[in-house]
Amino acid sequence: MAFGPNAIRSMELIDPAIRKAFNTRATKNGAKEDEATWINFRCGLGEPDLIAKVQTTDHDKTGLSSVHRAHFIDELADLLPEEIAHFGKRLVGLATLDSGKMQLAFEDDTTAHADAVVGCDGVRSRVRQFLLDTKSPLEDLTFSGKYAYRGLISMGMAKEALGEYLSGNSQMYLGPEGHILTYPIAHGKVMNVIAFKNQDTPWEHESWVVKNQGDAFKRDFEGWGKPVQSILQLLDSPDQWALFDHQPARTYCQGRVAILGDAAHASTPHQGAGAGQAIEDALILGRLLGDVQTQGASDIPAAFRAYDAVRRPRSQKVVTTSRAAGLTYAFQGPDGGDVAGIQEELLQRFQWIWEEDMESQLAQATTMLRGERQVAVGTGRGLVWGWAAVWKQVLEDLVSRVLVFIRGSR
After folding, report:
1. Active site includes 150?
2. Which end of the chain is more exposed for a tag (fewer CB within 10 A), N or C?
3. Range 44-60 burial, b when 16+ CB lie within 10 A, else e
């Protein structure tokens, strides 16, 4: 998984220990000159001429920072008390009890009860199915028109074939109806390869992963330049992975149930932003639920509605723009194969993702939640906790005014 500056800032805002855990496992570009480089976009036909060097603009020079999903999860699990993390569970049922609590039923015949449920159960989310009342977790998934071959190459072999610079730093080779992404992982010991190819027809296989495709990947990129051919020669019959994304959900919450990350807005990987959106989701929802802890479980639906209002527009924009990016890389965007036009687009494409003001999102979500509390007071619902919230805000404002007065009197 790759994370941009927005995601890494969000990790820090959730808890500095999360950013530290990420840094422990993260791999960056090897060359000092590419410390802040996201991707070197190159022409995949003929010589690998540079189209655009896209760099992150943050003070920390994030560049392309990647981590193995399982390794990162291991680090995150170590931050949790053992008694609250349970693995190997598969949800099969979700119901609201008369008490208002949620009951979760699992495939192993166990159950659990909670004041709220947040489904982070991935692209085939059962929680999303229950929340949106669809017949299947697959119902609102759409084939994106692309599949990918994935493979790992030892850095020693990659350097021998491509040279130290092309193998040890993130590169994307663009061409007609496809593109190939390579970048270092495992602290520079391995080069990751993902070769994307267009498919104009629907995905007809039952599984999203078709194994042992022989030399199909070589035929898909026949006629591409020498670096691309050198990469493909080092792959051994890679599997073919179909790329799906979600149709826009009408909501990310219902009552005391919410969805987060891929369960809410599964995206294609063409902007390296999907995983980062899950981190942003967690920041906003975690802060709102922390506020709920001080007010009582009856506040949960309001917190979920504030989360939905703030997070849904941005995260769904990432899904649609990611699809568009995939077209640009395959010379099917508005500029076709015009290198100058593609360069201009690439140099502007990522800024709105990376430069998001997460503190502003937090403030917006908190304001919405407090607004709902005040409405609850006005309608006579939740009188005690509603007035408590109002008085808390009044006292905060009063204290800030007193401090300003004291400082001004010195």
Report:
1. yes
2. C
3. bbeebeebbbbbbebee
